[in-house]
Amino acid sequence: MSAAIERAVEAVLFASAEPLSLDSLRAYVGNGDGSSDVRAAIAAVAERYRGRGVELVERGGRWHFQTAPDLAHLLRRDREEVRRLSRAGIETLAIIAYHEPVSRAEIEAIRGVQVAKGTLDVLMEAGWVRPAGRRDVPGRPLTYATTPEFLSHFGLTSRRDLPGLDDLRAAGLLDPVDLAFEQLAVEKDADDD
Residue 59 and residue 63: Cα distance in Å, rounded? Predict the structure, then answer.
């Protein structure tokens, strides 16, 4: 890998307003001796910035510079205040993240209530959810999936980094009613044996 490709990758990533994929970087800096040169340049730039005030991170197959997590508090007062999601929005986003691609009817079946059109609109406007095609069933319902912006916003490398049931329980984020129902189910199973 040449120093010129490494410098070019660093410059393009620094100037980019959005995270870039390997193909996008190749389009800017050229292929060099192949994609391995661009990959090696990314690795070299990431290593050079490790432990500094800004670092190169990969989120959903795209790379961008971000403030080091331990320094984020310095920029909080300059940040634009993001409006809070409603409970319905949070539930809908979680269902899409854990079950994607998922249709509106499937979201409603999981939540047990109808999803207002505005809820999905807010999630798409935030850039966290996108249409993911149509199911090949009667009515051809539209399905929804999360976006790379969702991963980036929540600091996830991939959907596999979403917390599991044990993680949520340990963080105290499960509703006590849900825990009570789960305990009853365990007790019932024990009684049936």
Answer: 6
Same domain for 124 and 100: yes
Pairing relationship of beta strands 102-103 and 54-59 according to DSSP bridges: unpaired
Asked if 157 and 92 sit in the same domain, the reply is yes
- Of the candidates 165, 157, 152, 153, the residue with the CA atom closest to the CA atom of residue 98: 165
pLDDT tens for 22-35 read 888 888 887 655 56
Residues 72 and 108 in one domain: no
How high does pLDDT run on average in the chain? 82
* Contact call for residues 88 and 116 (beta carbons, < 8 A): yes
**Domain carrying residue 122:** 87-162
pLDDT over 70 percentage in the chain: 80
Cα(134)–Cα(121) distance, rounded to whole angstroms? 17
**61 and 107 assigned to the same domain:** no
